[in-house]
Write a structure and sequence with these properties.
Two copies of one chain form a homodimer. Chain A has helices at 15-31, 46-54, 65-73, 89-101, 111-120, 148-156, 177-197, 210-213, 234-238, 275-278, 331-335, and strands at 10-14, 35-36, 60-62, 78-84, 103-108, 127-133, 161-166, 204-207, 223-224, 249-259, 268-271, 290-292, 299-303, 308-311, 323-328, 340-345, 348-354. Chain A is α/β, with parallel strands linked by helices. Chain A folds into two domains: 2-10 and 235-350, Lyase, Ornithine Decarboxylase, Chain A, domain 1 (Beta Barrel), CATH 2.40.37; 39-226, Alanine racemase (TIM Barrel, Alpha-Beta Barrel). Chains A and B meet through α5, β10 and α10 of A and α5, β10 and α10 of B.
């Protein structure tokens, strides 16, 4: 398959593994009576969103209004912008369209943003509100004891409160997925109680990163929003949440430089996949900048923009000019660096998918 | 100016500072009798390349064949692909066109790649060869004692040797720019001597990262290839190579979330510039994920894809909904994340430039 690719670096998606990953998370959600609303910022590809809906999801989560427009225009009209947006007047027109012709919710974590949303959409009730909670990640989101004034602003402006959501980002550390899932459940339930005590209905409690989603089993969320699970990546691998057999996405790369140890310089190969396609995400606990398919003891010890430096011990280093498959640490930011991906089935290239929402940061 | 931008996050280039940065490096090169061949992977914008040529450069350095094609088609035909490329047969046709209708050099660090270049271009002598040296960064490149066999392969295949080049990437550490520049000079001169002793002419000795370029003063390179200097970034700032007044590029961002200290969570703002526009480059010595223009004590303490978490002590945190200007750690990877930049002059938006070579990794 690798020799059939017209260029490197190129992103390759294995269709069989992708489909299995989508089915496994859908089965988990169904078994546990959870709504699965996958986060589409991971893939930004309409064809993958359609697969997720076909597997039982009612709609998608997205990070930006641009992503929402892209999926809406591709026919996926049930969307939750799980981000505390601050919309402009022009954004208000788009929100109104998506809410009128589809099913829309947006995130907020302040009274001020509720008023901004109400102002720019002229209090369009179809723009349903989800209040973001801080479940320990200390990013955006309020604590449960801060949630009621925001809900009151929603009511004052005659908007609709759909529920609360949180992202337990502290699940991205070794061994933390279970305690992060517990923090998530506790936070969601505490906010629900506070809101119910103040007279609000809270139909949706939304949580669930990829590491914590399958630890979300009882008493917390009604909805989960994992993203990375469709592809897998080196972070999930090194967190022990998946195996190499679950990796659906790799970056095909050419060995452009190869060196035996010489003087102070170690034996190494250089591939043409650097930070402009792998990105530069590296958690403190990561073993390097990514992994190599078929060579579990290989590690990407350094990246520059167009260079990935790879070392391993047990095997002969591959020949210059040969191609290998690299697994990025964080797949969401890698996909966003290319315009298209190659879909493969074993050794055959089936088709190309455009990364339609690439770069849609606004 | 910020309120005139139709959306955030958006990249903003200050034309006056850009022009001053281009002029200052051109003056330095002229004063020291160095050829300035700026690295265009930083900006990927034809209009900026034209400014660099107007300031006296004969041509540009690029990282990939795709970047070379983009600038060639924009009328900049003197190009050096300063990367050890492994070209496909299709690449050979492009190389031949660029060499026939322009002035082309390409990098290599192996006998095998010289043969590959000769094979796919049918020994097109216009594809001049630059041998890459390792001056201490231990990425691609050979040591001076390994250079002669590669030059012999160039001669055997009737190609033209233009010279040698190196990237002193170890200049990217506090206080290292002077010693890295010395390593660079020593390596270039040692390779020149080895090649001259073996009967080769070596017209060009090329070096110079942005930190080390202006430390390159005597006895080493004949050519420098800095890239970042056009814009500046937080890395250059924290390395002490530039001041805030030299920062030509910022990312306009909206404060979407604002929190006073509460429980375990510190006071912070969240802006809509995360790793999908700032990128995630962070050197071990960096103070955070970027800086804030006008707030020298502010630091981006964390990023996720669409969230930048910012803390500072001395001033009141800005209001939710307000806009600020963020300085990325590494500007080359930030520019590659957007399709267009806004060119401003003080408070006026002058025009938009397409990032024409964005994503051209191959």
């Amino acid at each position: 398959m690798l020799h059939k690719l017209p260029y490197t670096p190129a992103i390759v998606v294995d269709q069989g593994i992708l489909d299995a990953n989508i089915a496994a998370m859908a089965d988990f959600a169904a078994d546990h009576n959870l709504t699965l609303r996958p986060h589409a910022k991971t893939h930004k590809i309409a064809a993958i969103g359609q697969k997720q809906l076909a597997a039982g999801s009612p709609g998608l989560s997205v990070a930006t209004l641009g992503e929402a427009q892209y999926f809406f225009d591709a026919g996926i009209t049930d969307l939750f912008i799980s981000y505390p947006i601050w919309p402009t007047t022009a954004d208000g027109d788009v929100l109104t369209r998506l809410a009128t012709d589809g099913n829309l919710a947006v995130g907020t974590d302040s009274v001020a943003a509720v008023h901004q949303l109400a102002d720019v959409t002229e209090q369009q009730p179809g723009v349903e509100i989800m209040i973001e909670l801080n479940s320990g990640h200390n990013r955006s989101g309020v604590f449960p004891d801060q949630v009621v004034p925001i809900a009151q602003a929603v009511r004052d402006r005659k908007m609709v409160l759909r529920g609360v959501f949180t992202f337990p980002g502290h699940s991205y550390a070794p061994g933390e997925h279970t305690s992060a899932a517990a923090d998530e459940a506790q936070t969601l339930k505490a906010a629900e109680r506070a809101l119910q005590d103040a007279g609000f209905n809270v139909p949706v409690l939304s949580g669930g990163s990829t590491p914590s989603a399958t630890a979300t089993v009882a008493g917390g969320a009604t909805e989960i929003r994992p993203g990375v699970y469709v592809f897998g990546d080196a972070q999930q691998l090194e967190l022990g949440r998946i195996g190499f057999e679950n990796i659906a996405l790799t970056i095909a790369a050419t060995v452009v430089s190869r060196h035996e140890a010489h003087g102070d310089a170690p034996a190494r190969i250089i591939v043409d996949a650097g930070s402009k396609v792998l990105a530069n995400d590296r958690a403190p606990w990561a073993t390097g900048h990514g992994r190599v398919l078929g060579h579990p003891d290989a590690h990407i010890t350094a990246v520059s923009e167009h260079h990935g430096t790879i070392r391993w011990e047990s095997d002969e280093l591959p020949a210059i000019g040969s191609r290998i498959q690299v697994i990025p640490n964080h797949v969401c930011v890698a996909v966003n660096l290319v315009d298209e991906v190659y879909v493969v089935d074993g050794t055959d290239i089936l088709e190309q998918w455009q990364v339609g929402a690439r770069g849609m940061n606004a």
